[in-house]
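Practice problem 4.
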């Protein structure tokens, strides 16, 4: 039974303290890795964006997208109006 926010068993309190210490302690040998990982991820995203821009602005894709928009605008509307 929990009374006013305290744990009923001393062993449970000790176990929770041990678990909390494990969560706060970083894994050994990985200090400073997150900055490098962010840098690699940013470079990969920029490279992907450049590749995507090149593909989307190519003549074939531009013409296909324009054709798709023209066809969508010339189709009769759905909805049973006129």
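Answer key:
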């Amino acid at each position: 039974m929990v009374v006013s926010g305290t744990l009923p068993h001393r062993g449970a309190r000790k176990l929770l303290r041990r678990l909390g210490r494990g969560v706060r302690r970083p894994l050994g040998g990985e200090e400073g890795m997150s900055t490098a990982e962010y840098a690699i991820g940013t470079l990969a995203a920029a490279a992907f964006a450049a590749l995507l821009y090149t593909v989307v602005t190519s003549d074939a894709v531009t013409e296909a997208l324009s054709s798709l928009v023209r066809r969508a605008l010339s189709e009769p509307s759905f909805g049973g109006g006129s």
